[in-house]
Amino acid sequence: MNSYFQCSHVGFQNIAVNGNDGWVCNMFCSALFHVDLTTLEMTLETILPAENECGFKQYGPISYYKEKLIIAPLNGKDILIYDLKKKTIDCLQLDTGKIVAEEYVFLKIVLYNEVAFFVPLVGHCIVKLDLNTNEMEYLDDWFGEVERESGLEERNAIFSDVYDNGDGNIWLTSWQGNLVMEFNMNTNQYKLHSISGLEALSSVVVTENNMMLTERDFSTLSLYSFDGICSKMQIDYPGFVSRWGIGKLHLYGEYVFLFPLFANMILKYNRITGEVQCAKELNVQGKENSNVISLKRYVMKCCERINEEEVIYYSIPDSKIVKFNMKTCVAEELYTSIKEEEQEYLKSRLLEKSFLEGNYEKESLRLDSFIECIQGKYRGCSDDIGEDSSSYGKKIYQYLND
């Protein structure tokens, strides 16, 4: 797992919401940010404890519960409980022997009846956390059957999406196969639905009589009725270009909105007439001097509903937080830039600490971050290094040996 520490902006995969307040875990360092959902402005809330605080995607899934934030690791070993009033953090250590995975552990947190269910991304079990006692239960009865039916490859994602219909059932799509797992949070029982004709599922929404599904590698939308009939349509719209499939579905009225993994548009499909329309054109090129110039896979992350009408997502090419209204198809957006004083604080707390503790001995460190680290620890080095990057290594070596 390569380090990608930088302090210029916030990237995120999930968001916790309470009214007009949101919170996200930064992908690029172990820090929690508050989001004003009215203005989309971000403010550093706190630094999160982690084995490698400068590591990439230490935490991701996050959920709000009674003035606390429940935070799940992506590349870590602890569940965190952050008290928003007391500003304290409790660390709940996971049994790694039962989780098995060490990287990209969890996909999402689902809250139900004062219990948090941690749905795995690569992990081999669903973790059930009692939010009153902090007792954990590891539910893995389903894993063997899912492994056999999907032909799971080691270290690859198991589930790609979670749909919660609010009645105690959640629906999980298989990233490596054609399975949808229906999981009952009251009984901890599961049921597998094998969808013939589909593969590598990416998203699902469930209505009273059927499921709507998308695939990871193809721009398709499929309707699967619970009597076993599946109909698939190719998504086609003038000017729509897609390298991968549809990443996330959201229902709104008579429409289902299709948020892509990597494409140039958000589309909406009329469930009554079958008409496909463009809801929003997307920037897939990135802005000048962006930290994410080369887009290889995804155009957006997160893509979570914050109320009946609005969806929040992180636009990767231009490093923006976007609030998209499904009723009006109007988007508000703002760069996720970190304030200068907060950047300096993060550097002083994380980058120099990581350098002193030798956290990068077994990991790669970008040259610009290494220069910042050296300059932070050895302030006099700043003027000597200069602007010519071709001689950085030599000058650093000479300075440290003077």
The gist of it:
The chain is mostly beta strands. 14% of the residues lie in helices and 40% in strands.
Report the span from N to C terminus: 34 Å
CATH class of the largest domain: Mainly Beta
- Please give the domain count: 2
CATH architecture of the largest domain: 7 Propeller
CATH topology of the largest domain: Methylamine Dehydrogenase, Chain H
Shape: globular
Estimate what percentage of residues fall within beta strands: 35-45%
Radius of gyration: 22 Å
**Structural class assignment:** mainly beta
Looking at CATH, the homologous superfamily of the largest domain is YVTN repeat-like/Quinoprotein amine dehydrogenase
Largest sheet descriptor: 4 strands, antiparallel
Query: What's the total count of β strands?
Result: 28
Percent helix range: 10-25%
Kindly describe this structure.
This protein is mainly beta and 402 residues long. It folds into two domains: 325 residues, Methylamine Dehydrogenase, Chain H; 60 residues, no CATH class. It is 14% helix and 40% strand. It is built from six helices and 28 strands. Strand 19 and strand 20 form a beta hairpin. The longest helix has 18 residues. About 6% of the residues have low confidence.
Descriptors for this entry?
402 residues; mainly beta; Methylamine Dehydrogenase, Chain H; 2 domains; four-stranded antiparallel β-sheet; 28 strands
Strand and helix layout:
Layout: E1 16-18, E2 21-25, E3 31-36, E4 42-47, E5 59-65, E6 68-73, E7 78-83, E8 88-93, H1 96-99, E9 106-112, E10 115-120, E11 126-130, E12 136-139, H2 143-150, E13 159-164, E14 169-174, E15 179-184, E16 190-194, E17 201-206, E18 210-215, E19 220-225, E20 230-234, E21 246-252, E22 255-260, E23 265-270, E24 276-281, E25 300-305, E26 310-315, E27 320-325, E28 330-335, H3 340-357, H4 367-377, H5 381-385, H6 392-401
Antiparallel strand pairs: 1-2, 2-3, 3-4, 5-6, 6-7, 7-8, 9-10, 10-11, 11-12, 13-14, 14-15, 15-16, 17-18, 18-19, 19-20, 21-22, 22-23, 23-24, 25-26, 26-27, 27-28
